[in-house]
Amino acid sequence: MSGFKALRIDKIASGQTIAKVDFDEAELMDGDVTVRVTHSTVNYKDGLAITGRAPVVRRFPMIPGIDFAGVVESSGDPTFKPGEKVLLNGWGIGETHLGAYAQKARVRGEWLVPLPDAYTPAQAMAIGTAGYTAMLCLMAIERFGLTPADGPAVVTGAAGGVGSIAVAIMAKAGWHVVASTGRPNETTFLSGLGAAQILDRAVLSTPGKPLGKETYAAAIDSVGSVTLANVLAQMKPLGAVAACGLAQGMDLPTSVAPFILRGVSLIGINSVTASRARRMEAWGRLARDLDPRTLASLTTTIGFDDIVPTAEAILNGKIRGRVVVEIG
Ligand code: NDP
Predict the structure, then answer these.
(1) Spacing, Cα 321 to ligand 1 middle (Å)
(2) Were both Cys, which of 10, 127, 284, 323 would link to 131 (CB 3.0–4.6 Å)?
(3) 41 lines ligand 1 (CB under 6 A)
(4) pLDDT tens digits, residue range 73-97?
(5) In the chain, what are the domains?
């Protein structure tokens, strides 16, 4: 097939358009591995790209989609053979390099990770960039030297993609997890993932004091803004926060108080350009620690034609857990 189904964003004077098109293989960008994409997902960043609400896309036309799983069709990279199952998170696909919402992708072999034996392509995309980032956050907290014996951990945006997987893997690792959510109707869902306590997100998302009660030893934050400021203010001495997101906002209205009076650390997490070694470690840990039944409980599956409405929904905080896209 030289033409294949793809979602394409084009730039126009008033913004951008998005349409399902027949894409010509000759228009794919340079790369040494061509992959038949079978599954993708909708992450928050995909929502921003598809709606144009933030300048995620930096090359037009663009096929959005920041991660995929699929089967190698042809390869000039000796690491990957035709027929091998692979996955890709980040490295600018869907931003500067043609991305995942298409039946084919051509990428650099060094961006690919072999699909862990523990997972099908659909399960790998149920984890997706959100889940892999949650694991990068947990690994950062562990590298920092914190353990569940140090005290409770708080996960913000808990019913979202990063948050729900963060709750599951932290609980599995033995942490007493406090799940902060704006969706009280998801209490049973979050308890099922392993949350020990549910916290109304309003407690953290409205402006608070520079220092609050010493409550948490560790935190995974995908929300940013006032929420992250309040999490920092409520950390125990020498606690650490792994920050990866901006669902509430990109700002951080904090003070130096948590850092200089409690020795709190703020660890930034960027999944897009994480090293291959760290990716392999994260996917290996997920394969070991994230039970496929837990994963199934937080996953919804959609078809190609549902991508655009789902992109809107995720920005509106309407998606619970993770969404898998069957590319077909
Ligand atoms: P989701 O939309 O699935 O989850 C975000 C959650 O944040 C929502 O479900 C909601 O949780 C909470 N939330 C949304 N709006 C607000 C608000 N105004 N105030 C407080 N809480 C809010 O998105 P993802 O989990 O896919 O991504 C989360 C963030 O992490 C995004 O900003 C994304 O860009 C970022 N990210 C960063 C990566 C990196 O490499 N640094 C990689 C992956 C994601 P609830 O309903 O439970 O309150």
Answers:
(1) 10
(2) 127
(3) no
(4) 999 999 999 999 999 999 999 999 9
(5) 3-115+298-326 (3.90.180.10), 128-268 (3.40.50.720)
